[in-house]
Design goal:
- It comes from Digitaria exilis.
- Keywords: ATP-binding, Brassinosteroid signaling pathway, Cell membrane, Glycoprotein, Kinase, Leucine-rich repeat, Membrane, Nucleotide-binding, Receptor, Repeat, Serine/threonine-protein kinase, Signal, Transferase, Transmembrane, Transmembrane helix.
- It is an enzyme of class 2 (transferase).
- This is non-specific serine/threonine protein kinase.
- The chain is of the alpha/beta class and 1226 residues long.
- Among the domains are: 159 residues, Ribonuclease Inhibitor (Leucine-rich repeat, LRR (right-handed beta-alpha superhelix)), CATH 3.80.10; 274 residues, Ribonuclease Inhibitor (Leucine-rich repeat, LRR (right-handed beta-alpha superhelix), Alpha-Beta Horseshoe), CATH 3.80.10; 120 residues, Phosphorylase Kinase, domain 1 (2-Layer Sandwich), CATH 3.30.200; 210 residues, Orthogonal Bundle (Transferase(Phosphotransferase), domain 1), CATH 1.10.510.10.
- The chain is built from 24 helices and 64 strands.
- It has a 27-stranded mixed beta sheet, with helices on one face. Strands 34-36-38-40-42-44-49-51-53-55-56 form an eleven-stranded parallel beta sheet, with no helix packed on it.
- The chain is globular.
- The chain starts with a helix and ends in a 26-residue tail after the last helix.
Length: 1226
């Protein structure tokens, strides 16, 4: 018994020892493990509001000894010095987690060193992670990556302050807008790229000290200002550890600091300042400190040089050199580049380099991987010595003047090539695809567009080029058929064979390519049926442009499978049948062109449910039925932002009924504009304007369709009132149908409409008065209907020619006969019989009167003979005037008599003739030329009675006929105001158009301010203030007192004239209306005036507004304050006056804006600041934040209260009116 008891005791002792050893040997989670699990779960609760993949579903409170280290997603653990396991890393990359990020719980993990949350949707301002109090727990983090999230707000100065060991911080690709710099002494790598940072203090701090940073990336932010003369000035070059500095794609400006490279830290290997506004001549730039540089990127600035800076020759270790896009680098490619034995990437694109590619450059072939010399003026070809470039992968020589057979002899031997771009050169002969396929098997991109290549496209191309992704061969002379074997190119994404001479059908195999994104083959001779295999192996297709071929049959039903389609163009073929159902599935569709086919059936109502559609062209088909009201269903739903980034060309139809439709939209990548003249459509539909650009379209808020053409069909029924909801619609053509009913009054809601064609229908009723309020309307046609009633006198409707209202028997009013005359009939009145009885008694009186007339006629004949003699003498004088040399006038093509009258609006100028104008200007000689501009030349003319007038002789006037010109002049001639230059008269003779204006003694503000040699007066501040207020008053009258309001469209200092009292007179108002209809919306270059004055939104919406005029006025005001020109390369480089002034304001250097001659007194300088504030408000980038001109005048009025100025006395918009009683004589 005792023995057994002893044995049991020994057994219990042994178990106790084993348990003790086990407790020592196995790391236990204990309290610490529970705390880590609790911290992780606290982070999930606070920061993860959405976990769509269930990535963290496995996180649960630990119930084992391993705790979160067992199987928790993204958690990594490691043994610590005390033997326990602890969380050391958390990696939740790309898990689609979303929520407001709070890091406080994670900072409590004592062993967490690596935190990676990139690629999620966390948001917030990080303020909860900014504790720097003494109570904050110690933080072990070494590297933190929060990039590619949605973090916003400012970066707290104390962010991650407790993390004393932090070495790497990545906050790139967020939306941070400012804040303090998180410089811990231990930090070595900081990436803040692709945010919205603009804090100048933050920028300056990063350059000022000796922080120990090795990597600093501030690219793609909003930083402005200048770079310091040297980096880390408090550090010696040897002490600074900075190796990589990237400040590219910001808004920095000014001259490049002379010491930026020369005094660079010795460790600096990477320097990028690309995509800023740095300017200056770098011909002699000091590159003395570049010995260790491996990457130097100065691309896309405004740097100038007569040659590539020779100082670069000392940068022997360079691996990347990019000087592209500076535009002013000229001369030949220097041979010293051949000495860069380590160079892997050389980019000199987009400059003014000329001459041949030097043979010596082939010395780079040892390591060169990418060579980009595109968009220069290089000639010749690629030297034969480049055949030894066995590592070259990217070769871009596009946009030069290269020629010869270098593709076959040299390029085809570079077996390492992956990307080859040779478009827009002068390469001729058979297309080189066979030799390229044989010699360059790794090619992925081939671009040979816009050359003069001929021949057929080779079969089995992709058996030799299995990696081919993009094939661009547009605008050549290729013939034959589209090879069926292209369907074997499994990786092919983009095919562009447009503008060639290809025939046959499109192989079914191509339509079934699994990765196809762009299929562009317009303007060929392709025929047959479009294969019904679209998107059969994938839905990647975005662009389908095969218009202007000879395709027949129906639109393939499979098109609705391509749910990513953005641009569909099947126009100009011979397609039949109806539009297949299912287009509602194409929610990304932006442009649909089915015009000029033989399609039938109804217009699909479901197209109105395509929420991205902005361009719908169905003209010239056989559609019947009614216009579905649902077409306007997308109004207010089209989202803002980029619709598509494809290049386009728009040919406007200016031939009326000769050519159907409002115009033609083309995909225009890789096409030379001059080749477009050879396109048959141009000859069938003559056009004077081609608009080119990219189909990027943005709306300030949700928008609507911008182009709708349903003309030349058989549509019936009323026009849906819902179409009036499309507030962004710019072109609507419903003409040449069989529509009936009335014009919807709701069309007054088409606030952006520029062209409205309802002609050749069966419309009845009147023209709604609300159409007079459509201020952008520049082309209006309701001819050939059954309309009746008066043409509304408000707005611009009375300025259109009679032809736009023709064949509406019931219409009356300007420009048609008056309504009272139109209502007179042929039924005799009750008193007509009484009048007949009086006729007999009048006979005797008539006889006596006839005798008197005969006597007067004899007197008149004598006077006529005398006047004829006088006219012959005048004509002899006119014909003796010079017609060459200093004369700018040519009488060729003028068949009217020189005695033709000038239509005048002023009584003193009555009986003025064209001959008088010729005589007064000495035949429009150069001696009388006093100015010229976008609309014509201006001559000074002194008439015989001593009156001095200015005569504008319009140039390039091809837009309108006599009736439209006359109607426009009649409208402008009625506008009278003390701050507008009045139109006194006009004259039409032959193809010429002359406008007579009141002469302004001191000429234009532009000359007085900026051309001291020609200026007749010097402007002090009092004079400039008077001019600022006067020009604002004139512009305010145009905007607010004219009905409809007049948008100037070209407000600038040269259109502000000064009379003898230095009173400002705004000129050229209304002149833009002499341009044609679509200019208002589709062409910034043709109407939106002068560089330096154009508001930024014109380049996005292509719409002119009164707020655009306000912006341009702000530039004029800035000119008055600064005395500087809006654009001056010597002063601003690639920047302009507005950008420079805004930068000065931002840097608290506003005093540098003012003309030094104006800052004489403190009180005067204070007033300058007030006027500068008004200018800045006018120059706000956001149109809705700019004041109206009425508000500008009110601000001036407030400033006047503290002064004795009387410039604003009596100001009232209502006191100035359009002079409706202005007389005209001819």
């Amino acid at each position: 018994m005792a023995a057994s008891t002893t044995a049991a005791a020994w057994f219990l002792l042994l178990v106790a020892v084993l348990l003790l050893l086990l407790q020592v040997a196995v790391p236990a989670i204990g309290a610490a493990g529970e705390d880590e699990a609790a911290a992780l779960l606290a982070f999930r609760r606070a920061s993860v509001a959405d976990d769509p993949r269930g990535a963290l579903a496995g996180w649960a409170r630990a119930n084992s000894t391993a705790g979160p280290c067992s199987s928790w997603a993204g958690v990594s653990c490691a043994p610590q010095s005390d033997g326990r396991l602890a969380v050391v890393a958390l990696n939740l990359t790309g898990m689609s987690l979303a929520g407001e990020l709070r890091l406080d719980a994670l900072l409590a993990l004592p062993s967490l060193q690596h935190l990676d949350l990139r690629g999620n949707a966390f948001y917030g301002n990080l303020s909860s992670s900014s504790s720097a109090t003494a109570a904050a727990p110690p933080c072990a983090l070494v590297d933190v990556d929060l990039s590619s999230n949605a973090l916003n707000g400012t970066l707290p100065a104390a962010f991650l302050a407790p993390c004393a060991a932090l070495q790497s911080l990545n906050l790139s690709r967020n939306a941070l807008a400012g804040g303090g710099f998180p410089f811990a002494p231990s930090l070595r790598s900081l990436d803040l790229s692709r945010n919205a940072l603009a804090d100048a203090g933050l920028l300056n701090y990063s350059f000022a000290g000796c922080h120990g940073l090795r990597y600093l990336n501030l690219s793609a932010n909003l930083f402005a200002g200048r770079l310091p003369e040297r980096l880390a000035p408090s550090c010696s070059n040897s002490a600074s550890e900075l190796a990589v500095l990237d400040v590219s794609w910001n808004r920095m400006s000014g001259a490049l600091p002379a010491g930026l490279v020369a005094t660079a830290p010795a460790n600096l290997t990477h320097l990028s300042i690309a995509g800023n506004n740095f300017t200056g001549d770098v011909s002699a730039y000091d590159f003395g400190g570049c010995a260790n540089l491996t990457v130097l990127d100065w691309s896309y600035n405004g740097l100038s040089s007569t040659k590539l800076p020779p100082g670069l020759a000392g940068c022997h270790r360079l691996e990347t050199l990019d000087m592209s896009g500076n535009k002013l680098l000229a001369g030949t490619i220097p041979t010293f580049l051949a000495g860069f034995s380590s160079l892997k990437r050389l980019a000199l694109a987009g400059n003014e380099l000329s001459g041949p590619i030097p043979d010596e450059l082939s010395n780079l072939c040892g390591r060169i991987v990418e060579l980009d010399l595109s968009s220069n003026r290089l000639v010749g070809g690629l030297p034969a010595s480049f055949a030894k470039c066995r590592s070259l992968e990217v070769l871009d020589l596009g946009g030069n003047q290269l020629s010869g057979g270098f593709v076959d002899s040299v390029v085809s031997t570079i077996s390492s090539l992956r990307v080859l771009r040779l478009s827009f050169n002068n390469i001729t002969g058979p297309n080189p695809l066979p030799v390229l396929a044989a010699g360059c098997p790794l090619l992925e991109v081939i671009d040979l567009g816009s050359n003069e290549l001929d021949g057929e496209i080779m079969e089995d191309l992709c058996s030799s080029l299995p990696s081919l992704r993009q094939l661009f061969l547009p605008n050549n002379y290729l013939n034959g058929t589209v090879p069926k074997s292209l369907g074997n190119c499994a990786n092919l994404e983009s095919i562009d064979l447009s503008f060639n001479f290809l025939e046959g059908n499109i192989p079914t195999e191509i339509m079934a390519l699994p990765k196809l994104v762009d299929l562009v083959m317009w303007a060929n001779g392709l025929s047959g049926v479009i294969p019904d295999m679209l998107c059969s192996n994938g839905t990647t297709l975005e662009t389908l442009v095969i218009s202007y071929n000879n395709f027949t049959g129906a639109i393939p039903a499979s098109i609705v499978k391509c749910v990513n389609l953005i641009w569909v163009a099947l126009s100009g073929n011979r397609l039949t049948g109806s539009v297949p159902p299912g287009f509602i599935k194409l929610q990304k569709l932006a442009i649909l062109q089915l015009n000029r086919n033989q399609l039938s059936g109804h217009v699909p109502a479901e197209l109105g449910s395509c929420n991205n559609i902005i361009w719908l062209d169905l003209n010239s088909n056989n559609f019947t039925g009614t216009i579905p009201p649902e077409l306007a269903g997308q109004a207010g739903l089209v989202p803002g932002g980029i619709v598509s980034g494809k290049q386009f060309a728009f040919l406007r139809n200016e031939a009326g009924n000769i050519c159907p439709g409002a115009g033609v939209l083309f995909e225009f990548f890789g096409i030379r504009p001059e080749r477009l003249a050879a396109f048959p459509n141009v000859h069938l539909c003559p056009s004077t304007r081609i608009y080119t650009g990219t189909t990027v379209y943005t709306f300030s808020s949700n928008g609507s369709m911008i182009f709708l053409d349903l003309s030349y069909n058989g549509l019936t029924g009323p026009i849906p009132a819902s179409l009036g909801n499309m507030m962004y619609l710019q072109v609507m053509n419903l003409g040449h149908n069989e529509l009936d009913g009335t014009i919807p009054y709701e069309f007054s809601g088409l606030k952006s409409i520029g062209a409205l064609d309802l002609s050749n229908n069966r419309l009845t009723g009147g023209i709604p008065s609300g159409l007079g309020g459509l201020t952008f309307l520049a082309d209006f046609d309701v001819s050939n209907n059954n309309l009746s009633g008066p043409i509304p006198s408000s707005g611009q409707l009375t300025t259109f020619p009679q032809t736009r209202y023709a064949n509406n028997s019931g219409l009356c009013g300007i420009p048609l006969p008056p309504c009272d005359h139109a209502r007179r009939g042929g039924v005799p009145s009750a008193s007509s019989q009484g009048r007949r009885k009086a006729i007999g008694g009048s006979v005797l009186v008539g006889v006596a009167f006839s005798i008197l007339i005969l006597m007067l006629l004899l007197v008149a004949l004598f006077k006529l003979w005398k006047n004829q003699k006088t006219e012959e003498m005048r004509t002899g004088y006119i014909e003796s005037l010079p017609t060459s040399g200093t004369s700018s006038w040519k009488l060729s093509g003028v068949h009217e008599p020189l005695s033709i009258n000038v239509a005048t609006f002023e009584k003193p100028l009555r009986k003025l003739t064209f001959a008088h104008l010729l005589e007064a200007t000495n035949g429009f000689s150069a001696e009388t030329l006093i100015g010229s501009g976008g609309f014509g030349e201006v001559y000074k003319a002194k008439l015989k009675d001593g009156t001095v007038v200015a005569i504008k002789k319009l140039i390039h006037f091809t837009g309108q006929g006599d009736r439209e010109f006359t109607a426009e002049m009649e409208t402008i001639g009625k506008i009278k105001h003390r701050n507008l230059v009045p139109l006194l008269g006009y004259c039409k003779i032959g193809d010429e158009r002359l406008l007579v204006y009141e002469y302004m003694k001191h000429g234009s503000l532009d000359v007085v301010l900026h051309d001291k040699a020609k200026a007749s007066v010097k402007l002090d501040w009092a004079a400039r203030k008077k001019i600022a207020i006067g020009s604002a008053r004139g512009l305010a009258f145009l905007h607010h007192s004219c009905i409809p309001h007049i948008i100037h469209r070209d407000m600038k200092s040269s259109n502000v004239l000064l009379d003898s009292n230095l009173e400002a007179r705004v000129s050229d108002f209304g002149m833009a209306r002499l341009m044609n209809a679509l200019d208002t919306h589709l062409s910034v270059s043709t109407l939106a005036g002068t560089p330096g004055y154009v508001p930024p939104e014109y380049y996005q919406s292509f719409r002119c507004t009164t707020k655009g005029d306000v912006y341009s006025y702000g530039v004029v005001l800035l000119e008055l304050l600064s005395g500087k020109k809006p654009i001056d390369p010597n002063e601003f480089g690639d920047n302009n006056l507005v950008g420079w002034a805004k930068q000065m304001v931002k840097e608290n250097r506003s005093s540098e804006i003012f003309d030094p001659t104006l800052t004489n007194t403190k009180s005067g300088e204070a007033e300058l600041y007030q006027y500068l504030k008004i200018a800045c408000e006018c120059l706000d980038d956001r149109p809705n934040r700019r004041p109206t001109m009425i508000q500008v005048m009110a601000m001036f009025k407030e400033l006047q209260l503290d002064s004795d100025s009387d410039f604003l006395d009596g100001f009232s918009i209502n006191s100035s009116t359009i002079d409706e009683s202005a007389e005209k004589t001819t």
